[in-house]
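Support reply, case 0932

Customer input (verbatim):
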Amino acid sequence: MAAMYLSQTLLIFWLFKNGFGFSDLIIYSLGVYVVALVGIVFLPKIKMSAKRAMFFGILQSALIVLVLIKINSPLQLYLSAIFSGLNVIFFWIPYNTMFFKFSSESKRGTNSGIYFLITPIIGITLQPLTGIIAEKFGFEIMFLVGAFCYLIPIIFLKFLPDFEWNLNVKEELSKIKFNWATLFQGMSSRINYSLIPIFSLFFLKTPKQFGNFFGYLAIITAIASVLNGYISDKIKNRKIFFYFFTSLAVVSFLPLAFVDNIYYWGIFAGISSLCMNLANPFWLTFNLDHYKEIGVDKTMALREFFLNLGYIFTLLVVFLVFYFTSSTKISLIVISVLCCFFPVVSYLQGVYRDKINTGIIKKEL
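Our regenerated output:
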């Protein structure tokens, strides 16, 4: 996580500084998730040690930024997107699987909260630090330092538990119902994790401002995660929290399109990030509950499949609306309104509404 923040916090800012515009950055992000989705479905059936997969994933994380240290061609952007998409497959899927495979099933809500707490806790310090390093020593030095830091997780890999990791979920897709709730989770997540950073470029003009801004977002989002998960486990009624925080999260996106100065952007982007962090543990726990019959390994791969479908949908909608209207504001309004259907779609799917709510088609098992 530390290496990721040091190497990737300012990546979008660096690309923008090198002449890549709004459409280019959307296409770059879109390419990442297209690669990930295609890989999840069509890569040959892979069986390997989870730690070996994560080793490859860590190397790909370093390559994401190393290929962009000196930009001479737009092709480097696409190469970086390929490495980033492969990183989703080879690092994040086995990492997520490992985290929940070796944690208590009875405390999944708490564990989901801890999972989402780790990232902002690290980001509070390191994201502002990236801006300072970039301004004082240059982006190239910052990227090299970040890439070098990936040696640390490689060393610590040997201390992690291991298991056989099986990637391909193509066969499983024929045995499950379409998971609309997780697709909409992916759609909503990209507003927070892709569009807010890109739109922030219109308000934040220096690396230090950019790093401090995301350090600020980390501070205001770090507090809620564990508390939410703990309450969910104690009350054993995740339905209330799922629908309440989902509604809160998607509605919080709507004001973003109407902001025209840095102060209001900071306020409303902060509110959106906070609401997302309130909802995230319950979205993750839902998937663990939804696919509990097939195990954590396949659950995390299927979750990533539907999330990436949602990521692609959001970025494609934003790109197409911008292409035809030349308005970043309209593109953000359209996707924010679409995301407001998330709680409705979840209810129609039966999320935490039915006594037995699984994503498995029984007759095919």
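We compared this against your earlier run and they match. Two observations from our side: The longest helix spans residues 295-325. The chain has a mean pLDDT of 89. Please reopen the case if you see a mismatch on your end.
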